[in-house]
Design goal:
The protein is of the alpha+beta class. The chain has two domains: about 90 residues, Orthogonal Bundle (Helix Hairpins), CATH 1.10.287; about 160 residues, Immunoglobulin-like (Sandwich). Helix 2 packs antiparallel against helix 3.
Length: about 290
């Protein structure tokens, strides 16, 4: 009955506030609404663990309460003297092993599922810099661009502070997308909670993950590995569109980013670095 009520409550929230699936919100509770098969499985695994943990807490609390009431000095003035109980010791050893096995099996299955997709339909290359991201579409004639956070003084109405970028990553829905993550300087971590993505960016190597986005919309993330003073200013903005809209975007993107050729815009990099320093000094990160 409790599970039905909880499910109904979550459904009502998801219907009334669809935007909550895309980004953090004030007084948020729980995980963001899943927008990919990976995140759906992560959410189910989280719920299973929550039930197990709740059961353990209730059992241990009840046992402690029973011991306090049943074996206090007033109720039990002459305690029995014994040191072993073979059956009890076997039970309290076997039960945790069984619980760990119940957790381990779906955990390993989920880890293997998250690792990579057997048949990717396209590839996205992600490179972490201090303190911005670079993106490349190897299968789409090498379209590439850099993505910087929009500073406070340029934020427009409706945009999310510390989460919006000047150039968004456009990806098609219902597509198996291979994602290769690396870094050019220090450790970073490319994370988008609603899509179940969190992959470390390590200089000199590629880490692989994948995603299949279920529905159109904007999905936000941030660097999740402390990478220096600008760590808090490395947002990720993904715009998921239909396959037809993605093809249309490719046409314009090939023209817009044709001259990039993987060149870093140093003037923009220095400009953003200065704005980040200003925000840090003014305390506007809070």
């Amino acid at each position: 009955m409790l599970r039905i009520l909880l499910s109904a409550f979550v459904l009502i929230l998801g219907t009334a506030f669809p935007a909550l699936a895309q980004a953090p919100h004030d007084w948020g509770l729980g995980l963001q609404e899943p927008a990919s098969p990976t995140m759906e499985r992560l959410s189910d695994f989280h719920t299973m663990l929550l039930y197990i943990i709740t059961g353990i807490v209730i059992f241990v609390s009840a046992l402690l309460l029973y011991v306090i009431i049943r074996f206090n000095k007033r109720a039990n003035p002459e305690p029995k003297k014994f040191s072993h109980n073979t059956l009890l010791e076997v039970v309290w050893t076997a039960v945790p092993v069984i619980i760990l096995f119940i957790i381990a099996v779906p955990s390993f299955k989920l880890l293997f599922y998250m690792d990579r997709t057997a048949e990717p339909e396209m590839t996205l290359k992600v490179t972490g810099y201090q303190w911005y991201w670079g993106y490349e579409y190897p299968d789409q004639d090498g379209i590439n661009f850099l993505s910087y956070m929009i500073p406070d003084d340029e934020i427009k109405e409706g945009q999310k502070r510390l989460l919006e970028t000047d150039t968004v990553v456009v990806l098609p829905i219902d597509t198996n997308i291979q994602i290769l993550v690396t870094a050019a300087d220090v450790l970073h971590s490319w994370a988008v909670p609603a899509l179940g993505l969190k992959t470390d960016a390590v200089p000199g190597r590629f880490n692989e993950t994948w995603v299949r986005i279920n529905k159109p919309g904007k999905y936000y993330g941030q660097c999740s590995e402390i990478c220096g003073t600008g760590h808090a200013f490395m947002p990720i903005t993904i715009k998921a569109v239909t396959k037809e809209e993605f093809e249309a975007w490719l046409t314009t993107a090939k023209e817009e980013f044709a001259s990039n050729d993987n060149q870093i815009d140093m003037s923009r990099t220095h400009e953003v670095a200065g704005q980040i320093t200003t925000q840090q000094m003014s305390g506007s990160i809070n």
